[in-house]
Amino acid sequence: MSRRKLETNVFDAALDRMGHLYEDRRSRVVVAFSAGKDSGVCLELAIMAATLTDRLPVDVMIRDEEIM
Question: Omega of the bond prior to 57 within 30 degrees of 0, cis?
């Protein structure tokens, strides 16, 4: 599979995808947060997308495998 150059960067593409989830008023978006780097980025993107689409507050489910 060949690579192709996109007109956007990873951050903007991720924010756009998250924004589409929040624009769909039929969906409830819940972010799973484990306090790691990846889930922290997802939570921040969700907060940004929810702010842009006027869908605050963000629903968060905290999941910590070490505690369980």
Answer: yes
For residue range 33-46, list pLDDT tens digits in order: 988 899 999 999 99
How would DSSP label each residue in the chain? ------SS-HHHHHHHHHHHHHH-TT---EEEE-SSHHHHHHHHHHHHHHHHTT-PSPEEEE--TTT-
> What span, in angstroms and rounded, lies between the C-alpha atoms of 62 and 34?
6
Q: Is the CB of residue 18 less than 8 Å from the CB of residue 45? A: yes
CB 19 within 8 A of CB 49: yes
